[in-house]
């Protein structure tokens, strides 16, 4: 199967570029679907030094969509009200392929001069699951991870896939989930957070009352606060020229 990645949607930093947020969309969407959130997060001008990268998932066959192609980070074989349905028959090949793509995006930012501890990886639904998995298994220290309406993939073998040393054991993770989510069951998101905290990871899980499989203004505000806290402005570069 041929996999083609379109160039991501990029929002350049409006000041000196010192940090980057890579945010992945959900199944059937594109990076453009989260441009409204980036505009919302930037409106107070607290993230002027941050470049936002919104990748587009490749068109792949999705089993629960009768095998038809649509933008997806990995295949979904089963989806139901059962909290465990997404974890059955996981598309490990597709998950690891998306992990490699995310790692490549991170590496390109490093080559552009951005330290990995000034990079936040985030996403929604499928994109949140890829970000959570890729961030915690990254071989470099990240500034933070955001996983909205998501869950931990390959959880039964997760500890085998984490590099040693565990670069992101203490990396702050924000997980947001609606209590009325009928797509990615809230219980699965909570179970993922509990599992990770039990393993010693630094996960803050927030449940939003009445929210379905979507985002709400309160959640977006808390993500903005998380980004502002983890990626504080550094100000102007020091002038090292000799007098």
From TrEMBL:
Catalytic activity line of the entry: S-hexadecanoyl-L-cysteinyl-[protein] + H2O = L-cysteinyl-[protein] + hexadecanoate + H(+)
Protein's name according to its UniProt entry: Acyl-protein thioesterase 1
Keywords: Cytoplasm, Fatty acid metabolism, Hydrolase, Lipid metabolism, Serine esterase
Single GO biological process annotation from the record: fatty acid metabolic process
Lineage start: Eukaryota, Fungi, Dikarya, Ascomycota, Pezizomycotina
Gene3D superfamilies: alpha/beta hydrolase
Pfam families, alphabetized: Abhydrolase_2 (PF02230)
Domain Phospholipase/carboxylesterase/thioesterase as annotated: residue spans: 11-228
Family the entry assigns: Belongs to the AB hydrolase superfamily. AB hydrolase 2 family.
Highest rank taxon of the organism: Eukaryota
InterPro entries in alphabetical order: AB_hydrolase_fold, LYPA1-2/EST-like, PLipase/COase/thioEstase
GO CC, one annotated term: cytoplasm
EC number of this enzyme: 3.1.2.22
Functional description taken from the UniProt entry: Hydrolyzes fatty acids from S-acylated cysteine residues in proteins with a strong preference for palmitoylated G-alpha proteins over other acyl substrates. Mediates the deacylation of G-alpha proteins such as GPA1 in vivo, but has weak or no activity toward palmitoylated Ras proteins. Has weak lysophospholipase activity in vitro; however such activity may not exist in vivo.
Subcellular location(s) per record: Cytoplasm
GO molecular function: carboxylic ester hydrolase activity; palmitoyl-(protein) hydrolase activity
